[in-house]
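task queued by scheduler; priority normal; single chain, no ligands, no partner chains; default sampling; output format set to structure tokens
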Amino acid sequence: MPRFQKLPVVSRAGHVTRFIAVGALGFAVQIAAFAILTTVGQWPWLPATIVAVELAVVHNFLWHDRWTWRDRSGARHPSSLAGHRCVESRTTRFVRFNMTTGLTSIAGNAVLMAVSVGVMRLPGAAANVLAVGAMSVVNFVVSDRWVFHIGAEVVEPVERKGREGR
């Protein structure tokens, strides 16, 4: 039995819809972590933001790898007529995701929180909502185009059975 199974191609709209759903769950993780760290733990808002964002990043990666971009995560890619399969490991994708989406989210959220809370005097939770919304578009593009991208540099031919000479 083959290790890699053919999965249906997910449309760009499907990826966007799934990205938004996972992001909403990740946002709930981030807000809950932020609230617990700042209220129960009495953490200052900046370190609480950084830790809460990283928890959401890990949560989101796991869901994106298994659901949002499952058609690109280690299975035979269905759009490949040559029968290629992804050869990147989950660790490689996680490192890419954390380096890009993670760092972008942490840096972007930290800067936007500093401006929103520190300068504009918005409440921390409201500022957090604005920061997450602003970073979501950037994170989708980076994830779709680089972290979970299937291209020539990340595929290898799968041995095909059939008649010789074809």
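post-processing summary
- The helical segments are 12-40, 45-68, 90-119, 124-147.
- The two ends are 24 Å apart (CA to CA).
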